[in-house]
Amino acid sequence: MEETVIHEFDFALINEYFVGLERQGPGSPEATMRALRFIDNLTSESKIADLGCGTGGQTMVLAQNTKGVITALDLFPGSIDKLNSTAGKLRLQDRVKGIVGSMDNLPFQHDEFDLIWSEGAIANIGFENGLKYWKGFLKKDGYIAVTYESWFTDERPAEIEKWWVDAVPEIAAMGHNISILQKAGFLPVAAFTLPESCWIDAYFIPQKARQEEFLKKYAGNKTVERFISYLRREAELYSKYKQYYGYVFYIGKKI
Ligand SMILES: C[S@@+](CC[C@H](N)C(=O)[O-])C[C@H]1O[C@@H](n2cnc3c(N)ncnc32)[C@H](O)[C@@H]1O
């Protein structure tokens, strides 16, 4: 049986589902802070961009652990509304601004940023393509920090290979991705894998209640049923094959 690929579901449906969750991809405050510790020279004058920010789970962690000004950008207006409202509740509205936009057509100046952050989103425009394009918006010696789906082994079972190649055609092993980072004009500063808790506790477990809620709201809707089956399969495959892949944080400094 042919499986549906995530991009084939309606953008509005995917986002309505994910806007009800704190995180839209694997990650955690600890992982964000660990990556942040590799970045030096940030001051209250620093300008930071968070691309594909979703509802801002990692944006708030960044804001609470840096002094700079953060512009967070996402394609989905519902996520940006939630992000701006959370920033207000946390009294971070003077330093955090969410804007609607596309990460492949950034409304920024060249050499504007000290740091470009992006968790779980660069695959939407391609790892290599995104690194090269975003580099133009970084100052010299500025940093990039992104999480990206990566293979942990040279070979893996066909079932999981197919799933990920369908979702992220460019998916590659960590070593290869580090060489892409270097070829794109960055000094590779660090690369570390996200622990299982970033997938299970922050991503799969919170989705369980959301899935029940969604199925109830859209009872009888076949597209929603297929979408929820897709997400449940993603979780099953992770528990079966997690030794073969995961997210890796790649941190680079613009040379
Ligand atoms: C897997 S989610 C990650 C969200 C958040 N960074 C997190 O880790 O919780 C990917 C995000 O990228 C956004 N996105 C997809 N394509 C985009 C584009 N071309 N420009 C900006 N955002 C995009 C989606 O709306 C979604 O919020």
Protein described:
The structure is a single chain. This protein is an alpha/beta fold and 255 residues long. It has one domain: Vaccinia Virus protein VP39 (Rossmann fold). The protein is 43% helix and 22% strand. The protein is built from 9 helices and 8 strands. It has helices at 11-19, 29-36, 57-64, 77-89, 127-135, 158-167, 174-183, 196-217, 222-241, and strands at 47-51, 69-74, 96-100, 113-119, 138-151, 172-173, 186-193, 245-254. Strands 1, 2, 3, 4, 5, 6, 7 and 8 form an 8-stranded mixed sheet that branches. Helix 3 (57-64) links the parallel strand 1 and strand 2 (69-74). The longest helix is centred in the C-terminal third of the chain and has 22 residues, at 196-217. The radius of gyration is 18 Å and the shape is globular. The mean pLDDT is 95. The chain binds S-adenosylmethionine. S-adenosylmethionine is lined by residues 15, 23-25, 27, 52-54, 57-58, 73-76, 79, 102-104, 119-121, 124-125.
